[in-house]
Amino acid sequence: MMNCCGLITVKKEPVPLKSIAVEVSVQGHVATVSSTLQYENQEESPLEAIFVFPLPGEAAVCRFSAKIGQTEVVAEVQEKQKARDQYDDALSSGQQAFLLEESDESSDVFKLSVGSLPPGEKASVSLDYVTELAVQADDGLRLCLPAVLNPRYQPQGSDSGSAGSALVSSVPAGSVPYSLSLSARVSSPHPISRVESNCPLDTLNYLNTEKTQATVSLAAGHQFDRDVELLLYYQDTHQPTAIVEAAQTSAKPGSLMGDPVVMLSMYPEFPNDVMSSMTSHGEFLFVVDRSGSMSCLIHSGPGAQDRIGSARDTLLLLLKSLPMGCYFNIIGFGSSYESFFPKSVEYSQKTMDEALQKVNGMRADLGGTEILQPLKHIYSQPCLSDQPRQLFLITDGEVGNTKEVLDLVKTNAGSHRCFSFGIGEGASSALISGVAKQGGGHAQFITGQDRMQPKVMQSLRFALHPAVVDISVKWNVPKGVSVTPLSPPIRVHFQGQRALLYAQVTGESLGATKGSVTVKYSLAKQPVENQLSFSLKPAEDTGLTVHRLGARTLIRSLEMEEREGGGEKKGVKEKVVELSVQSGVSSAFTAFIAVHKVDGESVQGPMLRRQVPTPTIPPLSYEVPPQGAMAADCGPFGMADFSKYFDCPAPASIPAKDPLLQLISLQKAFGSWVLEAALAEVLGKTEEEVAKPKPAPVDQEVWATVLALVWLYGFKMEAQEEWQFLAMKAVSWIQAQKVASVSECVQAGNTLLGCQVQKDTLGL
């Protein structure tokens, strides 16, 4: 048995697609992705298939059509139950019907029912969705094709796959049964510097001299051995921009689609002096997935660690990097949860040592993935005064109650920030992005050959550095024009984050063609103000990406309002249905329905139903679990964790202990190192060789700490993001010792280790 996206035959074998064509239209920070999937029924009977596929959590489906033979039917959005009834009626009267709906549990999984496909008939399904592009650490904007548009294949007999890789089928080399074409058109208010991809691209083709418009295509011969990822880079990327999109000509003025919509992107740059200041307060709660699937490898490349091992190394870095004076706790969860301490403890040498001992014993042994209960436990504990609560959630899975989890995080958003980390292709983007968004934090995804440590430490930097607060957005428009925000207000904004705000522009003003927006905020107690102008008469031919994302943003806010009111809030559901139908954007309460009457004739023959399972963490293979295992492995929401049956390859050999992690494990909580044999071993010396060149007046602990810093700056600069905080702690500790001969120490350390690190580089 194998989890996969797509159609499955009567023998439970996937039906390969014939071809996939994808067109991408990018406007600044957002995109519309249009895809056409072609397949055929090779059965001898008519076929009903259930086709389940994942989408990015921030995406919204906005068009769906199906073509059978030469006839195309375009789906319309209707209230969900009404659409289901129409689908059932059509099938029972022998008509062909297509139904596309969002999963009730999670907004990033869609279910497409393809009904009554005659034997030997070809069908194509076209699907458009809109999405915001994720910002990367290097300021690039990332678009990744969902697995269904780019299924993964590897040659038979190769072992490059692992239980963690997404949707991998084994095929004879060079015989992937279909082709993929992808072309993208990019336009931006700022010039496009470059477009990169993990797959070969044809040359970037600029369409104007300002370089604000360009096209690019995937080179022929895509190998289907990886996810397709596009990275876009713009000049002046930190400058705020406003893009105004023209109304839909057929829509009624005054309605969302009948008015222009403006999108404001905010991606503030943080000055260096702000970035060098750090808080020493906070309650840091590290919530780590210990379900069975965490025993799988983090990626399929050489030297890969298992996920729980990578989480242990990451916790070592986090614990060593925390500031003195803060509080912390670690909670492991699976079907149940376990806390290291009954409540958060003050960070000290004693509590750090105790926690590290428990980290070393952490295993992936807690069954399924159940996040709701540990979160309820955390939120039931009172917050500590003057210690802002910062929650770090690390998981590789998905849950059956995503919306309930997001509602809980939102309800408690005033008392904490939530940073989330999704490991591997199986992590639900709706869950990972959703908890960070509702918790005012930041989401990171660890996929492919990514390492977990730099991404988690980057988020710790956001948690320790000042954030942008007191954000206000004021729209300045001429008389007769009004602006209605479609996005909820932003409470907090971190370094490296980007916010997109949508607003509807209603009315007209005689003669005036310009409006402006003023954005004010406070950063490290300093006021900042940006003003930018935009045209009230936008270009006519830019599509409706911004409108649809504005509609999606408003729909998501209203859906949450409806859930918070327990479904009792009058008129909210009706408003969502109206907005969804008007904009053509999917919602929790609507579905796409298309019915095709086949020349007035019924499709003959008994109907076969094919249920394709929702993709979870897709194993390469797993045994059928023994009877009774299902009940035992299910969490309270019925989400089984079958990792014990997964074919999770063990690491080929236990990797030697990383010297960097060895050095870090020796550091004391307040920042110093002790002169000992273990330190000398990391430095590649004997204890005597290390002790001998110490300048006479200098204390042994100061000397050991200077040597550790010189070694880090001399040999480990490529991993600076991982050790920068513990190095800052070490420097503060040395400065507190008021050492007279620091320069002499650094010089002697350089001579001993064969480095040339300047005292100023160390921050001394």
TrEMBL record:
PROSITE patterns referenced in this protein's UniProt entry, alphabetically: VIT, VWFA
Q: Where is the VWFA domain positioned along the sequence?
A: 283-464
Please report a single Pfam family linked to this protein.
VIT
Q: Where is the VIT domain?
A: 1-131
Check the record and name the PANTHER family matching this protein: VON WILLEBRAND FACTOR A DOMAIN-CONTAINING PROTEIN 5A (PTHR45737)
Q: What is this protein called?
A: von Willebrand factor A domain containing 5A
Q: Which organism is it from?
A: Hucho hucho (huchen)
What does the record give as the organism's lineage? Eukaryota, Metazoa, Chordata, Craniata, Vertebrata
